[in-house]
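Q: Could you fold this chain for me?
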Amino acid sequence: MIKKPKGKLGVLLPGMGAVATTFIAGVIAVRKGLSHPIGSLSQMGTIRLGKRTENRNPKIKDFIELAQLKDMVFGGWDIFEDNVYEAAIHAEVLDKTLLKKIKSDLVKIKPMKAVFDKKYVKKLEGSYVKKGKTKMALANALMKDIDKFKKDNKCDRLVMVWCGSTEIYIKESEVHKTIESFEKGLKENHPDIPPSMIYAYAAIKKGVPYANGAPNLSCDVPALVKLAKKNGVPIGGKDFKTGQTLMKTILAPGLKARSLGIEGWFSTNILGNRDGEVLDDPDNFKTKEVSKLGVLEEILEPEKHPELYKDLYHKVRINYYPPRGDAKEGWDNIDIRGWLNYPMQIKIDFLCRDSILAAPIVLDLAIFLDLANRADMKGIQEWLSFYFKSPQAKKGLQPFHDIFVQMMKLKNTLRHLKGEDLITHLGLDYYD
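A: Sure. Below is the predicted structure, expressed as structure tokens.
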């Protein structure tokens, strides 16, 4: 049973920089009829229902009860006091002509003071930050922000999507094992609890669905997974799948499907926005590197196909290059083997726009997390793996990285929620 999406949906965004402001400005522009929500599966995608001969292919938004763009209200936190219009101008992602047309809407959206600690993001200086003696005190301050935002904006429901920076690499440790150990760690300022985990904890405690758009552990630790199940809250992560990794999850399944060998896959990026600056620090890059490197191994399954992928060499590099701004460029060199081991190469130069690709992901995650909440789905939402570089999976399970498998899982989940037959593409027409 899916509850109807009545009233306003508040979308809370920790980190109101390039990605968040591009998302907010984009939704407002679409609402005003200035553009289309290109890149958003929830708005532009269709879903096949029943047999092919039935010719039922409605848009997803017309098939299932989703929150509408007109009912969205935006808020969040940032380490700078700029309103969304000022932050969007500074980010230099969207055309100023477009921003001026929606300026009156954007200037009204101002961030709340952020929970920030420079030791987790050493390249940034935060001037608009909360103060608290303990991390638990900061979590409580966030919960008060959540309550106030919901009341002030007369929201019926809330969701939260992390759009902040990549934090330094942290491994799962004892403090992350149980709800009790985690809360003790908050009270004692444990160093293995970074700001993103404090936001995730605050959201889950308040019953707010939470998605993590960065490679930080965030909600991907046993304590917060248990808390999400206990409180009946949908969660998901990690790391928005935008540029280079998106291409890998499209190409690698195709090469594997044709049983072509891969000797090496070298990837390098240049990026000049705040994300690029943060990743210029080795400790923060490590977090991103781990997220990016797991993709090929899961898709190619070298242990099952040793002749093809056992010796695959996979290297990822990210280089901060300020002149490029948000216009990220990803180069890939792929050395493959064909019939009788004859060598071939594939070269890719993807000149993409980081925030333009991420913004519709934020929209879809907000909308689908709200759907999951109204359908009483709790804990890890594996069906949303489609949107992440390093999808969160249940204990003991490997995440799916193949984008076509991820798409099938997402759409079949929607079909299941509406009582439609699942699509397997198993056609038995040769018996007819």
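A (continued): The chain has a mean pLDDT of 94.
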